[in-house]
Amino acid sequence: MAKVTVVGATGNVGAFAAHTIAEIPYVSDLLLMGRPGRGEILEGLVSDLIDSLAACGNSTRIRWSTDLADIAGSEIVVCTAGTPRRPGQDRLDLARENATIVADIAEAIGRIAPGTLILVVTNPVDIMTAVALKWSGMMPQQVFGLGTHLDSMRLKSLIATHFNVHVSEVHTRIIGEHGDSMVPLWSATTIGGVQISNLTAFHQLPISAIVNAVKGSGARIIEQKGSTVFGPGEAIASLVRTVLGDENRILTVSTHITSEIHGIGGICIGVPARINKNGVFPVAIRIDDEELAHFRESVEKLRQITDTVLESYGRTQGRNKNLPSYGGMGIQEQ
Asked: If we measure between CA atoms, which residue out of 296, 303, 291, 238 comes closest to residue 266?
């Protein structure tokens, strides 16, 4: 049984993620963290969640705090804190704004709970994962981001709808940035165990429309209802469940790579990774030439912004000694 902490629990995503995490059988203790001055909201949230769990016979212990020292003993800390993306705002515009918040939280986690895992949800998630990794001082496998996990699920759902099959029959993933430069891996997509390009109906698949739908899904939901909540919340819970259950599932998350994809490394980006209670371990893969070209573009886009954010933040304390010294966070592709 494990303790899980959600930092930024008073936000929409954090609150719903807390609800879904509380229902995971491995979780015995759930701590909801918020900034000082949010105690009344946190207390109300805890009471509401306790009522919800009582209705389904769940006895998970739920507490709240505004003191990061209370994260001690957590198996995993979910970081949803930060300024949410506003309608029409690009994820990357948030980088400078949220870097300070995430760095301070990560630095505290590294001191108080050095053995925990950090799951970063704050956008832009790939860059914030790099920020959390750098300032936590933790090992690369301990820090990962939601990345393209939800994007991959969105693609999976759209493919299943088009082919009129159960969603469990579709296996696919998106790598790269959680954003406009994401890269769908059609070469790794199967339906019922059959490579998708071998299906005669594949030629009628509106690939561009589907990819654009995935890319614009978050922005569209934000425009329509103000925020994305249920999709991210369930995606977060699935990752927490995978860690606590020591499931060794391969999911696509933002993690620090070294050379796993055609020698490309030195950056936090969405890639397939094996996930268990010890952390996140990127899986070495080969992809086709067109996908590789797009992945390189995504890497370079993120590399430039990540390096700029890390350098402009201007703090040297907390620089991660567990990372190779590549200069900034990046090395050149090999």
From this structure: 303
Q: Domain count for the chain, please give it.
A: 2
Report how far residue 218's alpha carbon sits from residue 224's, in angstroms, rounded to the nearest whole number.
10
63 backbone dihedrals φ, ψ, rounded to 5°: -135, 170
Residues recognised as catalytic: 178
d(CA 279, CA 248): 10
d(CA 214, CA 44): 35
Tell me: the pLDDT tens digits for 154-202? Answer: 999 999 999 999 999 999 999 999 989 999 999 999 999 999 999 998 9
Question: What is the Cβ-side half-sphere exposure of residue 308, based on CA atoms within 13 angstroms?
Answer: 10
Which candidate, 288, 238, 295, places its Cα nearest to that of 271? 295
34 token code pair: 């918020």
Provide the 3-class DSSP secondary structure of residue 75: coil
Is residue 170 domain-shared with residue 258, that is, in the same domain? Answer: yes
* pTM attached to this predicted model: 0.91
Report which of 126, 123, 96, 92 is spatially closest to residue 252, judged by C-alpha positions.
126
Q: Are residues 272 and 215 in the same domain?
A: yes
DSSP category for residue 84 = P
Expressed as residue numbers, the domain containing 182 is 149-282
